[in-house]
Amino acid sequence: MSEFSASNVIWTSRVHDAFGSVVELEDEQGNVSYYSVEKEFDVAGGSYAVLRAESGANAEPEIFKIISGQDGVLELVTIDDDDEWENVTELYDELTFPE
């Protein structure tokens, strides 16, 4: 059984508890976007948040990795590892659209 399976998911609310139901993210160019927090979970030693852009009715959800900064403040970062990205997105699809 893969570590990235629905049976290993622990639902969390750290991002929601820290920032509320809408988070503000700034990209490298300083552009600010607002996202609704849809789901948060821990699995396979990682923590993840599923966010949906506030702009655009058909915006696809985006998955970010949750990390604790040096000062303990939560940060949302993109998932750079291709295998981790694939595992997390497949798991999210499985959780969202069970067969």
From TrEMBL:
InterPro entries: UPF0473. It holds the Pfam family DUF1292. This is DUF1292 domain-containing protein. It comes from Paenibacillus lentus. The lineage of its organism: Bacteria, Bacillati, Bacillota, Bacilli, Bacillales.
